[in-house]
Amino acid sequence: MDTQLLVLAALLLLPLAAFLLAKQHGARERRGKNGARLPPGPPGLPLLGNLLLLRRYSFDMEALLRRLVARHGPVVSLRAGPTLSIFIADRRIAHAALVESGATLADRPAVSRSLLGENCNTISRSSYGPTWRLLRRNLVSETLHPSRVRLFAPARAWVRRVLAEMLGREAKEAAPPPVMEAFRYAMFCLLVLMCFGERLGEPAVRAIAAAQQDWLMFVAKNATVLAFWPALTKILLRGRLEKGLAARRRQKELFVPLIAARRERKEKMSSGQAGYAAAAQMTTFEHSYVDTLLDIKLPDEGNRALTDEEMAILCSEFLAAGTDTTSTALQWIMAELVKNPEIQEKLYSEIKETCNDDQEEVGEEDRHKISYLKAVVLEGLRHHPPAHFLLAHMAAEDMEVGGYLIPKGATVNFTVAEMGWDEREWERPMEFVPERFLPGGGGDGDGVDVTGSREIKMMPFGVGRRICAGLGIALLHLEYFVANLVREFEWKEVPGEEVDLAEAREFTTVMKKPLRARLMRRTAG
Prior knowledge:
four-stranded mixed β-sheet, iron ion binding, transmembrane, 2 domains, alpha+beta, monooxygenase, 21 helices
């Protein structure tokens, strides 16, 4: 249906076709200061560009890019209407673009910044400038700084118990359900508490999770087609846009009362000791992400405070960044441990050597002593990155990278998964081999810097100025939950349910056949 609508739009605008064809041809012939040309790519149609090709491969973009890279080289270009998109599949060129070129590629495409007509005051979609710096600095220093992260240790311990109890109950069923639902619910329990400062009941958490999932699936399914000539798609796809607006309204219905409760708490706390005591009875946690948003003032907009709507969207961004990606990565890692019991046993043995039997959990400090744990998590992120592409970057000015011209305004993306699977850089890249990351072991992952500051060999969190702000806490959560899940249970295949590592694309890249596992509680000693 999308293709029919867009072809209709193209026919209605046919008088412009010849002009745009000539313009596209001229762009292909354009050269940079040093003679660099635009990256090669497949021929396109007037107005539509390569849109029909993109539609054909909409559910397997990686297959299309593999084909194009094999034919044209590691940097290729595609057009969707007036938008030029460039894809980089070489780690050295990626480093030159994202790290060495600094701010030139730190912006976001205008379309992604204004999805559904919203303003761009979010960390992931803001233009590279003072508002983005303010919002990111607030998140990093006030919520994700190690001193703040430690405040949430009791929340992580509570969620660990919730998850273990849920998995323990499900393990007793004759046909255990997929574990992803339990993982996702647990991550929402944790991130909702970190965001709003409230330990909400199960119905409230599940309502927030459902609203978030509706929004994320809308974005995953519609962002590309809505970005094709927004002035047209806004008219032709009004029904689809209304679904997105409805998903946003539902989030705000759930989030704004929680934001108002934190605002009231803050006001009571500032009124004195009596007010503080009253406020303490209203909440379950002393600090939250929303608390920091209440203090923000936007200096380039008259020093105004954030609106409730802006804070609700920032809360949605916070939850999306910490729930779906983490639960997806956790499922992939546990699936590999089920499929490779010898790796699971090696990890369990190291955990037992590090932690006493009378310890309630593998503590957050204990994880630093378990080198194989970090190796397992890094190998999971290399082999199964939750996002196979980054959020699109935009060139702020003409730049030349790898001998190619990237013109101002072009969107640029990177083949994250393919870089982690590159057989020129990794030995047996399609096998799950945590040993490659053991320190001092001399493996191809020994000493890998996931921030990509020195070089890029894998980039599950992106690199450069737009690197994921939550990198540190994501690794903490994965290491903490993997360690405790392995210590609590032995994970085995369900008879007749062999682990299938085939992929499916949702908001993240998930298991096409969700993991089911037979869990056996381990006995102490």
